[in-house]
Specification:
With about 210 residues, this protein is mainly beta. It has one domain: Ribonuclease Z/Hydroxyacylglutathione hydrolase-like (Metallo-beta-lactamase, Chain A). Helix content is about 10%, strand content about 35%. The chain is built from 2 helices and 17 strands. An 8-stranded mixed sheet has the order 2-3-6-7-8-9-10-11, with no helix packed on it. Strands 1-17-16-15-14-13-12 form a 7-stranded mixed sheet, covered by helices on one side. A two-stranded antiparallel ribbon has the order 4-5. A hairpin with a 5-residue loop joins strand 6 and strand 7. It starts with a strand and ends with a strand.
Length: about 210
């Protein structure tokens, strides 16, 4: 496969629409540090309003405004899916105390009620059958997940966290991976089913099968 950059993504769909509220980035500095934050993506239009990743805690002052631009308040978010537990993806969970929370393989709601599911065994979690499901995509971290939105006007959109750093990340992602072999399988699985991928630290891109 190869990838094709899409630029800013706002995909209207028959039921759910997918909006990247903030495109993630990772910019290295000469001293070996880097300036980074994760992509933040909103899915709305159906009975669920889902936020995938919340950015780092430094994003908190901007997050309500990013949501409000799409007519959403934090209290309207029914589900928060955090692809993995790194601070640039999971930094603002307490903005959404009323939402069902999935952080990696931990699913909870209310005041700490943890719910059973099969993600750790490789089974997807259906949020809205036929429309939204969470798939285990281990590798970058062991308990990494991606959200798949089916039936949008762009086809299937995978909000993939750091399974993909960005659309041209070959030669880069392995150095950031806890389990590169597992991540390679996860990446292959995503490109096999997705038409568009929202990566963790770059612009959305289209999967072009050859």
């Amino acid at each position: 496969y190869r990838t094709s950059p899409l630029g800013s993504l706002s995909i209207p769909g028959p039921l759910y629409s997918v909006h990247v509220l903030r495109v993630g980035y990772n910019r290295p500095n000469p001293d070996g540090s880097c300036l980074a934050d994760g992509s933040v993506t909103l899915l709305l239009g159906g009975p669920l309003t889902v936020l995938v990743d919340t950015g780092g805690p430094w994003l908190r002052p901007l997050l309500p405004g990013l949501l409000a631009a799409h007519g959403v308040a934090p209290r309207d978010v029914t589900h928060v899916v955090v692809t993995h537990g790194h601070s640039d993806h999971a930094g603002n969970l307490n903005v959404f105390p009323g939402a069902t929370l999935l952080v990696g393989f931990d699913l909870s709601r209310g005041e700490g009620l943890y719910l059973p599911h099969g993600l750790a065994r490789g089974a997807p979690l259906e949020l809205h059958p036929g429309h939204l499901r969470v798939a285990p995509t281990p590798g970058h971290t062991r308990a990494h997940v991606s959200l798949l939105a089916e039936g949008t006007s762009a086809g299937t959109v995978a909000v993939a966290g750091d399974a993909f750093e960005h659309g041209e990340d070959e030669g880069e992602w392995e150095a950031l991976s806890e389990e590169p072999d597992a991540q390679r399988r996860s990446r292959e699985g995503l490109v096999a089913v997705a038409d568009v991928i929202v990566p963790g630290h770059g612009e959305p891109f289209r999967v072009v099968r050859e």
